[in-house]
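Hi P.,

Sorry for the delay on this. The queue was packed all week, but I finally got your sequence through. Input first:
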Amino acid sequence: MERDEAFTRYVDERWPVLVRSAVLLGCTRTEAEDLVQTALVRCYVAWEKVSSASNRDAYVYRVLVNCHHDSHRRRWWRERPTDEVPDAITEDRTGQVDDADAVQRALRRLSAPHRQVVVLRYYAHLGEQQIAEALRIAPGTVKSRLSRALAQLSTDLDVTALRGGRAS
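Then the structure:
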């Protein structure tokens, strides 16, 4: 039962961050939840290997990125979940939605490798070495991809609009 408890504890702690990472990789909220669930099923099956990895988060993010790649390869037959319509009126979060949409549009304009390093660095808060392990690339490649991605984002009109029209 110790294995199940460790896995459950990990999922409870990391679920929101993993889902948000999947959203930032280009999924809708419901697709992100499905993607994270698929990745965690794969991790559960190999939990001994995952839990003994030198960097558990990097291992799980590698599985998440692989599942994301797999989901796009099989897009034509995949199930398409929809969000539920809320029954009650909630507070107006239009500004937050607009900001999140602007960030997502800017991230979508990055190449997949550049988007991956930005999400893993600035949302998942992984270090360069952890990102290198997660993506199985050299740390220097992480640095160069991150540099190029940030240069592209600094000139993106959606990002500039978030900063009130100011250049970086």
